Amino acid sequence: MRAKRSHLRSTGTALETLMEDMDFDENPPPVPQKDPKAVIPEMNGASQAFKKRNTLRAGSKRIIPELEVEATEKSVVNEKLEYLLGDYNDSIEKACKNEKGQKALIKRLWADHEEVVEKCSINNLRHALWEPSFLSCGEGVKLCAYALRKIGYRSAFLLMKKMIIAGASNTTCNHLGQVIYTAWRMAVKEENEDMMKEIESEMITGTVHDAVLLPFNLSSKFIHILSSFSVDNADKAKMEGMLVRCFESVLWIGLESSHDQVRYAASTILLGFYPLMDDDDFKRDECLFKQNNIMLSMLKDECTAIRMVAAKKVLKILGMYWNFVPRDFVKQYMTIVSSIFH
Length: 342
Prior knowledge:
Layout: H1 2-11, H2 15-22, H3 36-60, H4 66-85, H5 88-95, H6 102-111, H7 113-119, H8 122-130, H9 132-135, H10 138-151, H11 153-165, H12 170-190, H13 193-213, H14 216-226, H15 242-247, H16 251-255, H17 260-273, H18 281-299, H19 304-320, H20 327-341
């Protein structure tokens, strides 16, 4: 140890000299600093970006004055009080006006539909059925469908005819069809056989007659009414047999008519409702064979319009309902269709 210490004293640098050379305390190295003139613009840029973000956040929120909120809440409360304290006839008349709050009022009326229909006059219920804006609301369609039992099914269908003659739009005709379909579904749900038969005989069968036999400008409107019962818009599995019963009185006669327009209207209906399925299992195959055979006749019809609409619809039917069409018919269909388009 003594030899090691003596060696350090003789060869190593003095400890004090090493500490002085390192100079930790007396002469610290200068800390690099940014130019003050350069710092100010950076701070300004950061503050501007911060302000911009805050502005965007504030701008995305709509500031609603307290007075406006209070006025809106007050108007809603007043409308509810007016409805609760008012008369249903007045409410129906107000709901027939195409103005702000119409749909909300119709929804309230549907919530109390049984009491509304019971206490309202027939004339006011007829007015609701007549008004297109009332039917444009889903609850309005359901309320009118429920009201048919008080208006009377024959009387309501005559009113619908007057609407069509007065120039009802295709959209309104679609809504009228929804009213009839909804009324029939209500009767099914209630298991009311008498109501179902009355709707089928007075409204659905009557619509088919008018769709087939009236001039085209009117028959097309009734076809729009029938569209609510078509495959795309209704639960066809729950309507098996009903459509066959309603169609058989006039549709098959119309398909064999010598009048091109009647034949065209009947063809359009059959092609839109294929396949019509009979309730009776023994008659089902016969009914399908009849439809397939008639479609073959359509493709060979003398009327060009019938051939064209049949060619387009038959291709769609083969794509969707190929399992209902026998192979022999498929071959004949494709042969004729290919000759039409070539």
